[in-house]
Design goal:
The chain is built from four helices and five strands. It is α+β, with helices and mostly antiparallel strands.
Amino acid sequence: LEYKEEFEAAIKEGTQTLPDKKPFPDKKTVNNPQNDVVVCARVRERVETEKIDGMLETFIARSPFTFAAELSFTFKNEARVTFNKYGADFIFDQKDSDEKVFDTVGDPLID
């Protein structure tokens, strides 16, 4: 990607303006029968081949939202990043362990 460094800098700068990650909701409210559907998402870390190929990290997890970086150019041919926001009940990022995902989502289903 010819403009990789410019886009990485724009993504990093834009990420600083996104809201902080919020704590997960109480398990009791999520298990409320009135809430029939619980939406979960996990943003995974790039795999080694994606890193080698120079793929940009364009998804940022900030519970209760996932932000997708949309890359484009201005009329002056400068890198521009716009973040699209998608909400869910639980958003896990690359740093969240499998155990945390299970404890948060799977454990209440077993109880």
